[in-house]
Known about the structure:
- The protein is mostly helical and 195 residues long.
- It has a single domain, classed as Up-down Bundle (Ferritin).
- The protein has helices at 35-64, 68-95, 105-120, 126-156, 160-194.
- Helix 1 runs parallel beside helix 3, helix 1 runs antiparallel to helix 4 (126-156) and helix 4 (126-156) runs antiparallel to helix 5 (160-194).
- The longest helix has 35 residues, at 160-194.
- One fe (iii) ion is lined by residues 77, 81, 140, 143, 173, 176.
Amino acid sequence: xxxxSKTSDTKSPATKKAKTTSKPTGKTGKMENxxxxxxxxxxxxxxxxxxxxxxxxxxxxxxASTSPELAAAFEKHTVExxxxxxxxxxxxxxxGEKASAKKCDAMEGLLEEADGIIxxxxxxxxxxxxxxxxxxxxxxxxxxxxYGTLRTFAGNMGHTEVMDLLQQTLDNEKETDVALTEVAxxxxxxxxxxx
Length: 195
Ligand code: FE
Ligand code: FE
């Protein structure tokens, strides 16, 4: 069994007593002006844009789906995505920041890809569903990467409550990814291969 190697920092450079300026920020940490904080908030705005556009795209993906199972998965995730938006608004509030969206080029591209799949496949086919699942899982993985990183940033800065909220959404994105794999493996891929 692989034991998770604890990276021992004990052999840090020949500094005497590494000046740990890690001031735990707690409730009202004064890191608000730091570059790291700005980067963090920027990432949240980017995600906010991404979620707000995704919540509009998912019903289209649902409508385009062939199998009722995939349509149901998209419907479920539409509701959950609205919760992600609400959670991000709560996060901005906790940070004392305005909830504003900043265009996310990555999500824009991923949603264009989903549109392209709908255009390039025939309705009523499971090949379309396989393509939609591919597009949707790319979206989920993008969200997982983003929430995972921002959750860790929040922890680094001592924003515990924010970290918890981001973790909740992260967990849901992971569940969604697993659910999509299940739909693919159970209802879609085999039959798509036969079309
Ligand atoms: Fe989301
Ligand atoms: Fe998602």
